[in-house]
Every structure is written in structure tokens, then in C-alpha cells.
Specification:
Layout (H helix, E strand, L loop, with lengths): L1 E5 L6 H8 L4 E5 L4 H4 L2 H5 L8 E3 L4 E3 L5 E11 L5 E8 L1 H5 L2
Parallel strand pairs: 1-2
Antiparallel strand pairs: 3-4, 4-5, 5-6
Length: about 100
């Protein structure tokens, strides 16, 4: 097995997918926001998805204020190389009503 180490510029779902489909490669990528994630300010930022609790069974996030964010829509993207990606957009019904 060939082990490939790359910088954060190669971090993408497309590259991870390519390597996952290959039995010949193992990829090591330092995430672009690795240094930021180690900082206290980042860890305490309640609007970041990474800092919310995710319930896979219900496919919803719970924010620091106890409100539920549910998948409201899906967006399709296509990269310059033709890689298709679908991204879920989550919204909080309680928070959106206040706007």
C-alpha cells in the first residue's frame, strides 16, 4: 500500500472518495482548519456545526441553546473535474420564526 501525505490544499470530499475507492492508497491530510480548531475561541463558538451535538438517527443537530436544526434542503454541487456532491442544509424552525 502506498501512503500519500499532502498539504491542506488537497483536502476535499473528492480526494477522500478517490482514496477510499482505492486499495492501493492511504491518504494523510492535515485539515485546513486544524490549527484554528485547537483554539479556545473556535471550540466555544456555538454557531459552528462541529460544536453541536448530532443525532444520526433523527438526522438533526442540537445547538448550545437546546434548539433542533433539521435538514431543510439539499444542494447539489459539481466540481471543475466533474465530481458531484450533495450537501444538506440544516435550519432551526424556532430561530427562523424570530427573523
Amino acid at each position: 500500500m502506498q501512503r500519500v501525505v499532502v498539504d491542506s490544499g488537497y483536502e476535499s470530499e473528492e480526494n477522500y472518495s478517490y482514496v477510499d475507492d482505492s486499495e492501493q492508497l492511504s491518504l494523510f491530510v492535515k485539515p485546513a482548519d486544524h490549527e484554528q480548531k485547537k483554539k479556545r475561541k473556535y471550540k466555544r463558538d456555538i454557531v459552528r456545526r462541529e460544536n453541536m451535538t448530532y443525532d444520526a438517527e433523527k438526522d438533526e443537530y442540537t445547538c448550545a441553546q437546546g434548539k433542533k436544526l433539521q435538514a431543510a434542503a439539499g444542494k447539489k454541487r459539481r466540481s471543475e473535474t466533474g465530481y458531484a456532491q450533495e450537501v444538506a442544509v440544516y435550519e432551526c424552525a424556532d430561530c427562523n420564526a424570530a427573523r
